[in-house]
Write a structure and sequence with these properties.
Length: 202
Amino acid sequence: MKIKIINDANRLIEPSFSLDIAKKHSYYNEISRMVIFKAIDYMLQNNEIFSLNFSYADMNNHSLLNKIEETISKHSLEGRLIFEIVETEHLDDIKIVNSFIDRFKAHGVKIAINDFGSSNSNFDYIFSLNPDFIKIDGSLISRILEDEKMYLLVDAIIQFAHKLDVEVIAERVYSQELHDTLINLNIDAIQGFFLIQPNENI
């Protein structure tokens, strides 16, 4: 679920342009709550599994978590949700993150580390957070065709994760060649423009 902002040229603007401003002016919690529950409302009309991003601020927002927990139980959403921890966020207190994970895993929610391998990447997260999935950041994936060292790094991440029974998803896959290369590296799942363009309603 994306935040939709349409500029004067009637073009959608990426949410990253607005979220930093929202955080500075204390609107982030309200916007995040709105987006999460709009996504859940959409989910209730479908049978698919849904994945939602959670920042450190979300994981430390007790009223938000209470409402989500109540909604999961009320609508029997166990097994249909993946919560993605935004790996680029600074996780100030790992105990808060682990408490969040334990709380919702008890409701059948799967956990993913989003943007793995980005600037704040830390392999320790795989041990300390015990995720079900990691999503390799697109900045790494997009370079494996022309950069042998990046290819070897992505290969190592996939092999390492698999040895821990963690599934690996590639972000920002944009071509058939990149898709086929990742399949040969035993990637578990792929997302990106090669498969489908973003939908402004989701």
